[in-house]
Design a protein that fits this description.
312 residues; disordered N terminus; DUF4384; Rossmann fold; 2 domains; five-stranded mixed β-sheet
């Protein structure tokens, strides 16, 4: 009985010190403990990508960058022990830049999962909490946007961290995909668009494109559920050397086929490529993730992207 009474007293004292913000670091979860908690239960073989941490105001801060550099190797080491795979940061940036993804919506994005080649994303925030930096992490499933796990880790705050918490950093340009019925290549040689930017299942969609010099064109579609299809060329419209000054239509007037929008609802992404040389068949269709994106990037220097919404 005495032991139980002593145990209760010690817990009460510990709670008192926590409430005063004076608890020692051994009473708080470490980054290693946070990594273990966050990845617990994730099946072996899954693929995970990182998103940079934000500060307490939701924006990038120098503190968040510093903390992420300390946290990332701990998460990777713990993940490798659990037979998980992580996307290289430079590869993730390549994919984001090429596809301008918004892959962390509350409803999830199976198409983003196909493009990224990832099953989950880790994101979070870093902020000063008393004498410590508090790092709050979330593990998000890309298919449905569900938060599968959350964890917190703490590290002792160094003196300069207090200045760094509110010190913004210049973020690398990363354009999130907006619904847009028009896409133009960076050099202006390829221009393509759709007749609308919002469709319902069952609607017909028409795609237009033009080039500023003789080029072969290929158009690839990634549906909201991640299916990859080459729209052009197709069995009704073989690949030809496209001429400038003409607008090409998919399907063309009086065609024997139509492009029909099908469920599920979400964001449908289309990538157009142009090259002075013919494209090989099925470019990029049998891969996903960085291999998929590298195949597209390597296929042609002239590329443009657009997206449209499929509504419920």
């Amino acid at each position: 009985m005495r032991f139980r009474q002593i145990k209760i007293v010690l817990k009460t004292v510990l709670f008192f010190f926590v409430s005063l913000g004076a608890v020692n670091s051994f009473a708080l979860p470490t980054f290693q403990m946070a990594a273990d908690s966050l990845l617990q239960g994730v099946q072996a073989g899954k693929v995970i990508g990182f998103v940079d941490l934000s500060g307490s105001n939701g924006e990038a801060s120098k503190l968040a960058v510093e903390i992420f550099q300390e946290l990332e190797p701990i998460l990777i080491r713990e993940g490798i022990n659990r037979q998980l795979t992580f996307i290289e940061r430079r590869d993730l940036k390549l994919i984001f830049d090429e596809w301008a993804l918004d892959s962390f919506s509350k409803t999830g994005d199976a198409g983003a999962r196909t493009i990224l080649g990832a099953d989950y994303i880790i994101t979070g925030k870093a902020k000063i909490s008393g004498d410590f930096v508090q790092c709050s992490l979330k593990l998000i499933q890309l298919d449905n946007g569900r938060i599968l796990a959350a964890a917190e880790g703490y590290v002792k705050a160094r003196p300069h961290y207090y200045q760094w918490e509110q010190l913004p950093v210049e973020q690398e340009k990363q354009i999130r995909q907006q619904v847009s019925e028009e896409g133009v290549s960076s050099d202006g040689k390829l221009h393509f668009w759709t007749d609308k930017k919002r469709y319902l299942p069952g609607d017909e969609i028409i795609i237009f494109f033009k080039v500023s010099e003789p080029l072969y064109v290929k158009i690839i579609d990634v549906t909201p559920d991640g299916k990859v299809t080459t729209i052009y060329p197709n069995i009704f419209q073989p690949g030809v050397l496209c001429s400038p000054g003409r607008v090409y239509t998919i399907p063309p007037d009086k065609a024997q086929f139509k492009l029909e929008v099908t469920p599920p609802a979400g964001i449908d992404r289309i990538k157009a490529l142009a090259s002075p040389d013919p494209f090989p068949d099925d470019q990029g269709q049998k891969t996903r993730g960085v291999r998929f994106t590298r195949a597209i990037v390597g296929a042609a220097p002239i590329r443009a992207a657009l997206s449209f919404e499929i509504a419920d």
